[in-house]
Amino acid sequence: MKPLARAAIIAVGSELLTPLRFDTNSLFLTGQLNALGIDVVMKGVAGDDREELGHLFRAALGRADLVVFTGGLGPTDDDVTREVVASTLGRSLAEDTGITERLRVRFAARGFTGPMPESNRRQAMVPTGARVLENNRGSAPGLWLEEGDAVIVLLPGPPRELHPMVAALVDGPLRERSEGVPLLRRVLKISGRIESQTDEQLQPLYRKWEKGTPRVNATILAALGQLELHLWCRAPSTDAANQALERAVDEVCAVIGVDVFSTDGRPMEAVVGEMLASRGLHIALAESCTGGLLTSRLTDIPGSSRYVAQAVIAYTNEAKTALLGVPAPLIEAHGAVSEPVAVAMADGARTRAGVEVGVGVTGIAGPGGGTPEKPVGTVAVAASIAAETRSRLFRFHGERDQVKFQASQAALDMVRRMLL
Amino acid sequence: MKPLARAAIIAVGSELLTPLRFDTNSLFLTGQLNALGIDVVMKGVAGDDREELGHLFRAALGRADLVVFTGGLGPTDDDVTREVVASTLGRSLAEDTGITERLRVRFAARGFTGPMPESNRRQAMVPTGARVLENNRGSAPGLWLEEGDAVIVLLPGPPRELHPMVAALVDGPLRERSEGVPLLRRVLKISGRIESQTDEQLQPLYRKWEKGTPRVNATILAALGQLELHLWCRAPSTDAANQALERAVDEVCAVIGVDVFSTDGRPMEAVVGEMLASRGLHIALAESCTGGLLTSRLTDIPGSSRYVAQAVIAYTNEAKTALLGVPAPLIEAHGAVSEPVAVAMADGARTRAGVEVGVGVTGIAGPGGGTPEKPVGTVAVAASIAAETRSRLFRFHGERDQVKFQASQAALDMVRRMLL
């Protein structure tokens, strides 16, 4: 049989055709399939509707040798995936008594008394010739069908049920059927630069990589507070792809230098956290316009209680003075949004907590509060590490939450650069 | 001509077939189309590939009378949407000199000197019979084509270009072609309840609504820290739909009571913020395991500087004592994660800030730090408003960020219930 190379992913569920819900499973699935050398050539979403789902399935079968469904495997009348797949392939559905038995055990184990509702037995209906994929975290089993050279996989929608089932497929039948050339990716994150200038500087590398074996591809994307350089490589082996990507990462770092803050997709707060932890340093934070976001990002990282000492969120001038010791005349002279006040906040946070690193952020997140001299988006950031203090005034664009994020990113980046 | 009733949305771009990028435009488009009475019956994603995109387009044309494309309208060879649509419909492409002229003006206005690159002229290529949709925020114009009773719309991918163009379509040609029955939605958010029990209590309402005119549909979804009850209604007029939804919302509130915290999709932090603002109250927060997330959520709301006085993030016992006045013997006696300590944190935050409302949160976000008596996810929450104090010990499940979110949600909800 030919190895699987081209996948279509179909997410099933009427809620995915509303303005309220995403298909997030397909991103996870795409990463897993790519690593086996399987490209995703199309994605689709259909509602809980036999006719629409059948149409989309037929369209996918025409283009892909692997069709992966997520969702629509529950016990209700709305769960139509099993039925549509069976009827499209011209197969009949029959009850798998092994599944029914497992459903009964599960039902009883969850403390329900009395007989299992008949509707649950729908989940035991299996198209002729299908292989059952066990679901250890939910009631709906997955299904694996082969039709000529094509494979059709039915998986449940809830991510916590889906993920372990995909892991089992990738380690087992999917790997056996995919002798393709794996596609691996790396995401580099870059701060303090604009897209066009960075792209221009990297052009010679892009041209070199294009001619290389294996070839490395690159694309640069501007995200909030950072640039992302996506690299991908298809090579005969995972090792060869990893080596080519590793070389490319080194070459980018040689050109862009310390503006590259992450070479493995980790966010800024993880990078800064690791620097603090590895040096045994502790950090104290004084936030105004970021309103807690800066400290919340740092404390998203497991183990951050080792290096995040304490933080103060001081919106008012009085709080800045009382909690951080910022002199009232300093605020009077420069305004609350100013580099001298940010420095005094950073120093106050650091000395009051008795730690090595202090950060101060004060600004105007908007939409109100701007003035002609200090428009919305004006943010002063300062960091103080032992004897060294740095500060800078930024002008960020965007909505309130975007200003908050960019300000927190600038503060983390300032600490990172001082610790380099 | 028949009014448009069934839409397919196709997002174009190879980056949307990687593990890294979502199609977010389709959610926005779906809301806009639904409000005109147009259902979205399928969504698809294709890469920058003529053959794949053509296949998906033909599949969509077979099911929908409106096909909306987003993306693939730029100036490069990779931008294939115009070409694929023209060739699939058997039309030729010709340069629209009006567009070329606007592109030249735009190019010059942006300060570029010399002639416009030839590649930009690709954006002026228009299929025979297409109407041009102006793009005031970018170079790629949109296109409107009619083919029999069907309409095909090509729109640019960047949201800031897409949104105003969709607004113009909804006010103009799309509204003229859609005499359908508008579909409106409402999202109610509910705290402190589990899905199955709530669903059961609402069954009589569901049955009543099913028989009503206009009919109201409902579905309940469990989200992190809250339940969401989605209601939707299709009625001959927007007013009639709104009235039916309004009645349904009132009926739900009569059954579920104060557990309904939002009837218009607003998040908990906006609801609590409005309660504080309308009563002229100020809040001070003492966070431990939430690490700033609680205050960051409150300060996401514009105008929150009016009622968020200050906050302290105190991980260590020493910081809890120094910054909040939590007595060391109290921590010794009950442990840092305990209701008495949460109460002392709330009281300390409130009295030290000299405000009316204080909140304290202390817990174990994980993955480390759990014990048999106090496993990961154990969180004590307290709120103190004037003479009244409440506290409660929670056991949350999930990863670190999920525990943080649920703890912040529980704290906000406690304040909300005390202010009712």
- Find the structural class of chain A using helix and strand composition: alpha/beta
| SS field, number of helical segments of chain A | 14
**Level-2 CATH architecture of the largest domain in chain A:** 3-Layer(aba) Sandwich
Considering residues with a beta carbon less than 8 A from a beta carbon on another chain, report the largest interface and each chain's count.
A-B, 71 and 71 residues
Verbal overview:
The structure is a homodimer of 420-residue chains. With 420 residues, chain A is α/β, with parallel strands linked by helices. Chain A has 3 domains: 6-177, Molybdenum Cofactor Biosythetic Enzyme, Chain A (3-Layer(aba) Sandwich); 183-262, Alpha-Beta Plaits (2-Layer Sandwich); 268-419, CinA-like (Maf protein), CATH 3.90.950. Chain A is 40% helix and 25% strand. Chain A has 14 helices and 17 strands. Chain A has helices spanning 25-35, 50-61, 81-88, 97-109, 159-171, 173-177, 195-211, 238-256, 268-279, 293-298, 317-324, 328-334, 339-353, 400-419; strands spanning 6-12, 39-46, 66-70, 93-95, 125-127, 131-133, 142-147, 150-155, 183-190, 216-223, 226-234, 260-262, 283-287, 308-314, 357-363, 378-385, 388-395. A 6-stranded mixed beta sheet of chain A has the order 2-1-3-8-7-6, with helices on both faces. In chain A, strand 10 (216-223) and strand 11 (226-234) form a beta hairpin. The radius of gyration of chain A is 27 Å and the shape is elongated. In chain A, 47% of the residues are buried. The model of chain A has no long low-confidence stretch (mean pLDDT 94). Strand 2 of chain A pairs antiparallel with strand 2 of chain B, so a sheet runs across the interface.
